[in-house]
Amino acid sequence: MGKPAPLYVLAALLSLLASKVTDAQVPANFLPYGYGDIVNPISDDGSSEAIFLQQPFKYFGRTYNQIYVNNNGHLTFTQPLSAYVPYLNSGLDIIAPLWTDLYNVNGGTISYREDTSSAVLAQVTQAVHQYFPHVPFTATSAFVATWESVPYYSGGGLVTFQVVLVSNGDRSFILINYGDIAETGQVWLAGYNTVDSVNSFTIPAASVPELSSSSNINVNGRWSFHVDGSLNLPANFLPFGDGDVVNPISDDGSSEAIYLQQPFKYFGRTYNQIYVNNNGHLTFTQPLSAFVPYLNAGIDIIAPLWTDLYNVNGGTISYREDTSSAVLAQVTQAVNQYFPNVPFTATSAFVATWDSVPYITGGGVVTFQVVLVSNGDRSFILINYGDIAQTGQVWLAGYDTVDSVNSFTIPAASAPELSYSSNINVNGRWSFRVDGSLNLPANFLPFGDGDVVNPISDDGSSGAIYLQQPFKYFGRTYNQIYVNNNGHLTFTQPLSAYVPYLNAGIDIIAPLWTDLYNVNGGTISYREDTSSAVLAQVTQAVNQYFPNVPFTATSAFVATWDSVPYITGGGVVTFQVVLVSNGDRSFILINYGDIAQTGQVWLAGYDTVDSVNSFTIPAASAPELSYSSNINVNGRWSFRVDGSLNFPANFLPFGDGDVVNPISDDGSSEAIYLQQPFKYFGRTYNQIYVNNNGHLTFTLPLSAYVPYLNSGLDIIAPLWTDLNNRHGGTISYREDTSSAVLAQVTQAVHQYFPHVPFTATSVFVATWDSVPYYSGEGVVTFQVVLVSNDDRSFILNNYGDIAQTGQVWLAGYDTVDSVNSFTIPAASAPELSYSSNINVNGRWSFRVDGSANSCDTCTEYEACQERSGVLGCVCLDGQRPNLEFFDAVESCASSTGSISLSRCQLFESGFSTETLHLNDPSCRGTLEDGRLLFNFDNEDHICGTTLTSNRTHFIYQNAILSNLRSNDQSIISRARWMNITFSCAYPLIQTLSMPMGIRAEGGVISQEVPGQGRYEIHMVPYHDAQFTSPYEGEVEIQVNQQIYVAVEVLGVDESQIATVLDNCWATPVNDIDHDIRWSLIIRECPNPEDGTVEVLQNGNGTTSHFSFRMFTFSGNSDRIFLHCQVHLCLVNNGRCAQSCEVGYRRRRRRSLDFQHSAAVTMGL
């Protein structure tokens, strides 16, 4: 080879072995390798054998079936290459991820495999889609070659890299992945080159290690290239290549006849076959080899680019008929975008693509595509242009028909201009509708796709069409219908009459009754549609045209006359009738498209058996129908035809979004858990039941169908009787917190209860819609609405049509104890529809929370009067003391406090009791004897109370505030507001004496300071150090016997306050200031002169403990009296008791007879 033999083999091997421990991990973008790979021979400047590829690889226009993996870091196709010094212009097609002198004799592995596993193909397909988003591609093969830890020939380090050849036969890509690349002084090169060096690229890295962090696709250490030689396709091309049929390679050739699964309608003619001609055009009846384009060819032709193309020299012409959901969705979306007024869903897409096909004269290639989109009735073409080379050849782009009546030439000045021209504002795309039908107006429902087509017959009709959802027509319900060719619908029999006339003696709907002749063309079709999209569309229309009728469609029957000619000729008509129903409510929508003028007799409207309900659309001429309307939508008329009365305006919306009760005789809903609890005469409920027989209960469902009072239940009965939803109707409910509904019911409550301040936060709506009596005497429609906020509750009963009945019935409400009970006084059930207690026909309203009205609680010192439009209790003369503070009366005890204000003074000053609260807005006052009382304590009902202290007192403080919320959006308010601060103060320091007596009792002191708080201090003696056994009754304590004393403060919050013993002492008489005294505790610590005293607990809670040995005073009574001075400490201010150093604990000798056995009786 001419290279010197390496003298460092052993050193290199040692270095390699060491490097195996320290090599970095292979980066994540490497494809799996090693397992199952074929390993290259260990050879200086060696190569693999010829590797025969399962999937040929296209490399810049040349296709290879074999490849060589060369040890020195490159791939070749025609022969192995041992060259270790890289050079450009090698005269070979070469891919060189890292071409340098590598030496696998000293270590490392060079391996390869061709991988067709689904996991790897998915991985490389995803990568290509990411790096080349406009190239439709699915990989069918990945050839992976990896150099792992291969040393340079000169030593000094290792390299790890990988090259992946990704292909699907037509498209080819390479991915080069770099791992750890050591620095080297060797010559190296990374990139690719071709035989003629026309396509050549060198990766621009300043040093070889830089390859590991460089990239052209923003992924460190990865480079990717498109290498088949084809130009990238624009984004608007449909996928092609994979699964396509390829045209023969032939000058001026064509495909065979291609039989279409979905016939294609082209300007009134329907074709079942097509030809893809190599020279850039499609024909239907025969192939066409003409290479010079010309108009008036006398055939139907679609020519995306008709010129002399020569696939003998390269490129691919391919086609397929695609019915995949992804492609159909894509072309449907395109058609809907470009033709928004044409209802359309594609069922077939025929895709023909010319990919990099050269002109016969040379000079460049062209890439374009034509897509025929169809659903059987509607047809469109999309023409997509990629790169179009300039040419001097004659060319033409557009379409033509047999008679050239429909013909179009794309107006481009040069062939390359096609790539960025458009008629639909998408560069390189043109789109045309080519079925020959007129466009439909926007208010037509979709038709054609899935419709049943009427027979072609003069004066014919459909068969009887059985309806899934019966249709109610002016009181009669039909389960079948006929679509008659002459422009009308009937229910009981077909009707062939072609001359329209009123009083036909049948129920008839006639969108355009005249003599139509589908023998000469056009389509008459129909379907019953229950799809969610169509139901939503017709529901929205009905709600718009009949806003006071709550309605949700469950069926839409659509019949369409599409381009049907008059029998006399002279033009065609397009119109549609839609029967919309939910079983109880029925509507018709009549939609008019293009209506030609005619001299025939015609009629548009509807009629009934007895002609009681009859309507003729007042148009002066047939074409006028296309822009006439009764609902302000050109070309649309709408009518309600079930014959029922409209719901009264005071019904709340229902149906849409409601939960529907089970169909069951005497049934009920499940327990319905309320988001907002409902207060019913003093009881608060979190659940409710909607019972089919016309009532609501709270604790359990109720199946009773015979109404009775005193049922022992809380019950709301808008109409309690035996109802049977098995025979029809709907019972539904919802809890509604929408702002619109809350505003509506809040307004109603304000109107009916003007003196009750109220804003609704929840509305529960239950509706019985056209539910029949069990006896079958008719149907009833009514609604009950439960309106609530935290404090107030109301019910609204709304009555619609209520049929007469002989059944027992009752309307009203009752309670568990029947204390609150009301029966609506109607003489008959139908009378409910126009009776009322609030002057609104068919509505009753009640307040049901159980709270008293404003004036019900006025005391003997108050009178009920109106102020500023509100009723309330005013003060009688002489009952207005302390006006400035509303006669505030404050009370403090322990850690609790209360304050009361005069209710009448508050009312006279414009303050509602409902708007006042303590610092915590949830702490509101309660009315007691004409006063508004507020309470707090410092445990379970803090209410925003704050606790502070000074040198003499600790203080609980709160305030009475008014709610400043406004119901309007004004930035100012002139309403008065309140802020009355009040406090309870307690002395920090107290002195307690424990007198001796005959009986042992607990010593209690109560401190009451005018205007201040009060708490209690107890001093209790105990037998034991555990303080479990207090002295009781008459006892004796021996001199020198240990006694245990507890000092406890009651009525304060132990989480915030601690008791501290400052000083304790004894006197021989019950006088705290007696001149003879013996100190037990001095400044919180035991008297150092009395070694028997122990302070057991001090400042750690509301109870302090100490002990000492019993003694008497020499020469005095055998009684002693204990006294303690204590102070209270706020725990959050820090440590409440100081530490006491342990001193000399031997007692000083006193005038005390330790052997004296006289009994001392101690009582507390």
UniProtKB/TrEMBL annotation:
Q: Name one Pfam family in it.
A: ZP-N
Q: Does the keyword Signal apply?
A: yes
Q: Which InterPro entries match?
A: Alpha-tectorin, NIDO_dom, ZP-C, ZP-C_dom, ZP-N, ZP_dom
Residue ranges of domain ZP in the record: 891-1147
Protein name (record): Alpha-tectorin
* Keywords of the record: Disulfide bond, Signal
Please list the GO biological process terms of this entry: cell-matrix adhesion
**Residues covered by the NIDO domain:** 97-230, 304-437, 511-644, 718-851
Report the leader peptide range.
1-24
